[in-house]
Amino acid sequence: GMLVQDPTKGNQVDEIFNQARQSAVERPDLRASSSSKAFTGTARLLSGETVSSAPAPPPENVSHNITFWRNGFTVDDGPLRGMDDPANASFLESIMRSECPRELEPADKKTRVHVELINKREEDYSVRLCSLHF
Fold first, then answer.
1. Which of 5, 36, 43, 83 is deepest in the core (most CB within 10 A)?
2. Which residues constitute the signal peptide according to the record (predicted)?
3. Model-level pTM greater than 0.70?
């Protein structure tokens, strides 16, 4: 679908942050849980030998920063993307619903994704080039 904004409403970035805040659900930290569904203990082979089983490693965490600028938004250190570009509509709709945008979903579903929204709407995005002197 397309993201359609009412021009009589306030700033589009404000609306994105407000919708994301309203849709946000506090998720419990699964690492802090004392009860685990994984079996740990000692197993016995048919030969009678014992084999210790180690718990599975915790899932990996991935973080992404989405920065909203006066003239668009960036994902991590990527290029500036337009708020009005239809190609970004589903991405912005996901953010407004506090969902992970499809393009940021990990291939391994056990990997946790944390998305940080950064509001720099008072600034224009500009590419800062470094100059090297030889």
1. 83
2. none
3. no
**Domain-embedded: residue 53:** no
Host domain of residue 84? 13-21+58-124
User: Does residue 95 belong to any structural domain of this protein?
Assistant: yes
Is the residue at 77 inside a domain?
Answer: yes
Mean pLDDT of 2-15: 58
Q: Identify which of 115, 120, 89, 95 has the alpha carbon closest to the alpha carbon of residue 15.
A: 95
- Give the contacts of 93 (CB within 8 A, at least 6 positions apart): 1, 3
Residue 4 lies in a domain: no
For 80, other C-beta atoms within 10 Å of its C-beta total 14
- The 10s digit of each residue's pLDDT in 60-113 is 889 999 999 999 999 998 999 999 999 999 999 999 998 899 999 988 888 899
Residue 69 has a CB neighbour count (10 Å cut-off) of 20
Q: Which residues neighbour 33 within 8 Å (Cβ) at sequence distance 6 or greater?
A: none
